[in-house]
Amino acid sequence: MDEEIDTRKINNSFLRDHNYATEADIISTVEFNPTGELLATGDKGGRVVVFQREQESKNQPHRRGEYNVYSTFQSHEPEFDYLKSLEIEEKINKIRWLPQQNAAYFLLSTNDKTVKLWKVSERDKRPEGYNLKDEEGRIRDPTTITALRILLQPMDLMVEATPRRVFSNAHTYHINSISVNSDYETYMSTDDLRINLWNLEITNRSFNIVDIKPANMEMLTEVITAAEFQPSQCNTFVYSSSKGSIRLCDMRASALCDNHSKLFEEPEDPSNRSFFSEIISSISDVKFSHSGRYLMTRDYLTVKVWDLNMESKPLETYQVHDYLRSKLCSLYENDCIFDKFECVWNGSDSVIMTGSYNNFFRMFDRNTKRDVTLEASRENSKPRAILKPRKVCVGGKRRKDEISVDSLDFSKKILHSAWHPSENIIAVAATNNLYIFQDKVN
Amino acid sequence: MFPKGTKRKFSDSGDEPAAGGEDVNQPSSVAVRMLSSYSLQRQSLLDMSLIKLQLCHMLVEPNLCRSVLIANTVRQIQEEMTQDGTWQIMTQALSAANAAAQCSADRLVATEVLCRQTEATQGEQVLKPFPAVGSEGCPAEEEVVVEEEGEGGVTMSTVSPQAPTSYLPGTFGMDPCWEEENGEDEEEDEDSEECGSGSEEGDSDRLVEDSRTAEQVFGTFEIKNPAPSPDPALEELFSDVDASYYDLDTVLTGMQSAPKMGPYDLLESLSSHGPSPLSSSTSCRSDLNELDHIMEIIVGS
C-alpha cells in the first residue's frame, strides 16, 4: 500500500496529469494587430500562430479578407525553476502587438515569468554570391570592383520569426498582463503583486511602478488581476484587483505609483451578499475604450463600463449570465468560479463583447441596449452561415431552441476573444479552436 | 443564499433535533432546522475551501489569486462562526475528541496528523479533525451524541447542530509540521505506542508554530521551497529544522508531495464521516482538564 502511494507520487512529479498533446493546443490568448491585418493566437504549449488577412481580390470577392496562417513559432519553452523546484509553464498568457514602423511586425508575448519581443518579417530574396562575376559568368577584373556587394536572388516568400529581446527575471509572481505604452518606447508587465515598467530596448533593467505586496505576506488579501495603459496618455494606466476595484495611476505623480489618483469601486449590494460575493467581484479583465474615455471591466457575472470621470459607480452594467448566480456554490466546487473571462470593445466603442460557458459569447450594444448570445461551435454553424442567436432558459418551460441552465457545458468556456480595430470581424477562441466571424457582406 | 443544488453531506442529521422535539415547538424546530441547514452548508463550504487550499498542483506554482480568494472565503466563514459562537464550541469539542482519540490505536493517519493543541485565548483557533473512522477510540463522544439527540435539541441553535465537523484539517496555519508527522506515522502505522509518542514529539513543534497567526499560509511565497521529498526518512532528518522552513510545505505552495496523508485520504475521511453532532460543553470539561494537563507537560518541556 505504501509503495503504491509512493509510486503514484513519484509519477505525478514527473508527468503531467493530462494528455499533453491535447492540452498544448488550448488557445490562451488572441489579439489583432493595430491595423487588423494580422491576428495572433498563443496557446498552452507556448506556441504563437499568426494569421494574415488575405488581400481583397476582384477575382474572388467571396473570399473577402479571410485569415490564413502567416507564421507559427515556438515562443516560450517549459522551464524549471531549480531554486523553488517548480515548473514554469510555457503557456502564453498575453500577446500584444507593437505599432508597425517598418516592413516587419513586432509583438510581445509573455508566459508566467518572461516577456519576449518577437520580430515577424518576410523574406523573399536570398543571398547568392557576390558581385565578383559579370553577366556572362566570367570573373571580373578585381581592379574594376570598388565595393563588395551581396547579390540577392528572389525566392519563395518565407515568414520568419526571431526573438529580438528577452525580458526576464523581473517577476516573482505570475505575469497576467502586458500593455504597450502610447509612447511606443515603454511597456509594462503586471504580475499578482507588482507592475514593472520596461523600455523596449533595454532588457536588463525594469522599473517597479506598483507594489502591493504587504510587508508581512500573512496579511495578503488582495492581488492585481490586470493592468493597461491609457491609449493616448502615456503617463496614465489602470490596474484592477481581486476585490473588484480599479485604480488609475499617474506616473508623473511619483516614481512608485502605490497611491492611486482615482479609485473606481462600486459599493456592494447588500441584498446579494453571500460567501461568494468577493470572489465574483474579482475583476478578470480591464480594457480602455479606443477613445480612452471609458473603462470596461469584467467580473464573474457582469461587464461594467466606467466613465473615467466618475469613480463612485459604473456608467453601465451588463449581465452576462446572471442565471449562474444561484449556482455559485457548485461553480465554486468545480472551480469554474475562478475562470477569468476577457472582454473587448469594437472599433467605435459602441459594442462590447465577452465570453461565457457552453461556447457562448455575448455582445452588448451600448447605444440600443440590445444584447445577443451567440455560439461558437462547428455543429451549430456551417461556414458562411449566419449565426443564430441563442437563449438560455432560466426556469419554467423551455422553448424549442432554448437551452436550460443545467444543460450548459461548463468545460466549454470562451475566455479569450478579439475584435478587429476597425471592422466588424471577431476572433473567438473556444478551447483549442479559433473561430473568426465577419459581418455579412451583400 | 445557497443554491438548492448544493450537495448536502449530512442531510439526515438536519432532521434529528426536530424529530425528538415536541409538536408544540413546531415553529422553533423549523427555525432550528433552517439554522442548522445554513450551518451545514456553511460548514461544507468551509470543508470544501480547506480542501481546495490543500489540493494544489504538485509541480506548478499554485495560482495566487485563486488561493487568496479561497483563503478570504475561509476567513469570512471563520469570522462568522466566531461571532455566533460556533467556532469556540467546535474547536473545544474537537480537541476533546482528539484527546480521547490520541490514545486509540485505530486512529487514522489523517486524524493523528492534524491533531493539535489550541491556545484558547486566541480568537483564531486551529481546528482539529473529528476522528473520521476511528470512533472506537472515543466512546465518550458517541454517548454524548446519543444523549443530545434524545433531549430534543433545544440547545442546538447555539451549537452548530449535527455540524459536519467532518474533517477539518487545521489549515489555519495549516502547518507544515504535519507533513513531518505524516512521514513518521506512515512508518509507525501499526505501532500504537509509537504513534502516541510520535505525536507528542510533534506537539512541541506544533505549539511553536501555532503561536503564529493563521494567515501565515501566505508566508510560503517568500521562502524558497525545498525539493519535494516523499521519503519519510528525509522528513525525519529535517524535523529539527527551523519552523519557518516548513512554511514551504503549507497549502499555498502546493508542495504536497511530502504528506503521506495525501488528498486521497482527505476525501476518504470526508466521505466516510457519518453524522456526528458536537458534544455539549459539559461533557468536554473533564476532557479539557486532561488536555490542559497534557499541555502543561508539553509546554513545560
From TrEMBL, chain A:
Pfam families referenced in this protein's UniProt entry, alphabetically: WD40 (PF00400)
Database matches in PROSITE patterns: PR55_1, PR55_2
Any one GO molecular function term: protein phosphatase regulator activity
Xref: SMART domains: WD40
Similarity remark: Belongs to the phosphatase 2A regulatory subunit B family.
Record-linked PANTHER family: PROTEIN PHOSPHATASE PP2A REGULATORY SUBUNIT B
Record protein name field: Serine/threonine-protein phosphatase 2A 55 kDa regulatory subunit B
Organism for this UniProt entry: Oncorhynchus tshawytscha (Chinook salmon)
From TrEMBL, chain B:
Lineage: Eukaryota, Metazoa, Chordata, Craniata, Vertebrata
Species in which this protein is naturally found: Oncorhynchus tshawytscha (Chinook salmon)
Domain SERTA: 38-85
Name of protein: SERTA domain-containing protein
Cellular component per GO, a single term: nucleus
Stored Pfam families: SERTA
Polar residues composition-biased segments: 155-165
UniProt superkingdom: Eukaryota
InterPro entries: E2F-SERTA_domain_protein, SERTA_dom
Region annotation Disordered: where it falls in the sequence: 1-25, 152-210
Positions with biased composition (Acidic residues): 177-194
